[in-house]
Amino acid sequence: MTKLNSFGIWSFMVRPLRIEYPGAWYHVTSRGNEKKNIFSDDQDKKRFLEILSETSNLYGTEAHAYVLMENHFYQLIVPEAES
What we know:
Blueprint: E1 2-4, E2 10-12, E3 26-31, H1 42-59, E4 61-68, E5 72-79
Antiparallel strand pairs: 1-2, 3-5, 4-5
């Protein structure tokens, strides 16, 4: 969403920060631009799962479920500690 600021210039409005807390369940999804494929083969999907594991360890989240489709994915994650 955009709005005209006091200087007569169009600016973008920023989304408010998401409130996060330990034990909350988050549904994460992402789709390719123009619904194009984000995975080209099974090797891409395997690498994605490796990255998912690495980032889960790095950011302290636990992935409870995931679905990988050709042009999008879904995850169900829970943060382990307050970030």
